[in-house]
């Protein structure tokens, strides 16, 4: 129970602060806890990451002010050009935006923080944003914790 709560707290913090990494925490837990706890930790981490990305969504929507984002968007360069291209595609095709969010949430390519902001910019439905984020993050974390646990079960011991 404590490890699940801790996974939630670390995941929420990692969702808010990009330099923190929930994946490293979860992989470290593989050697310490059983499979049932790993599943609970992965789901708790997915909830935490979802909650941690909601402020970025609201930054994109303009509800929360982020001077660093305004400066970045106003500066000509690759980042602002890509953001404008993704925004145009996501506004023209909402399914493309949902697919981009799912890909980014699962694989972190393009960076999930950037896509979370983009989801707010294009006014994606918040419930849809949360559902896609939770499902894809849960899948990512379950694979992350269960694959090594499964591999470790085949080691002689």
What value does the average pLDDT take?
A: 88
Distance between the termini: 27 Å
Rg over CA atoms, rounded to whole Å, is 17 Å
Tell me roughly what share of residues is in helical segments.
Answer: over 70%
Structural class, by secondary structure, is mainly alpha
String of helices and strands: HHHHHHHH
Estimated share of beta-strand residues: under 5%
What are the segments in which pLDDT stays under 50 over at least 5 consecutive residues? none
Number of strands: 0
Structural shape: elongated
Q: Count every helix, treating DSSP H or I runs of 4 or more residues as helices.
A: 8
The description of the largest β-sheet is: none
Describe the protein.
With about 160 residues, the protein is an all-alpha fold. About 80% of the residues lie in helices and about 0% in strands. The two termini are about 25 Å apart.
What's this model, at a glance?
By secondary structure, the protein is an all-alpha fold. The chain is built from eight helices and no strands.
Task: Walk me through the topology.
Blueprint: H1 2-16, H2 22-30, H3 35-61, H4 67-74, H5 78-92, H6 94-107, H7 112-121, H8 126-152
Helix pairs in contact: 1-3, 2-3, 2-8, 3-7, 3-8, 5-6, 5-7, 6-7, 6-8
């Amino acid at each position: 129970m404590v490890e699940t709560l801790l996974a939630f707290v670390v995941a929420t913090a990692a969702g808010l602060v990009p330099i923190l990494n929930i994946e490293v925490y979860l992989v470290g837990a593989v050697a310490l806890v059983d499979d049932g706890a790993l599943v609970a930790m992965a789901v708790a981490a997915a909830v935490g990451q979802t909650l941690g990305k909601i402020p970025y969504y609201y930054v994109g929507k303009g509800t929360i002010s982020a001077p660093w984002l305004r400066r970045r968007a106003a500066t000509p360069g690759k980042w602002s050009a890509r953001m404008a291209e993704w925004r145009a595609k996501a506004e023209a095709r909402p399914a493309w935006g949902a697919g981009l969010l799912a890909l980014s949430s699962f694989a972190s390519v393009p960076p999930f923080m950037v896509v979370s902001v983009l989801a707010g910019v294009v006014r994606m439905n918040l419930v849809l944003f949360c559902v896609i984020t939770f499902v894809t993050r849960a899948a990512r974390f379950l694979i992350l914790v269960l694959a090594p646990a499964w591999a470790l079960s085949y080691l002689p011991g």
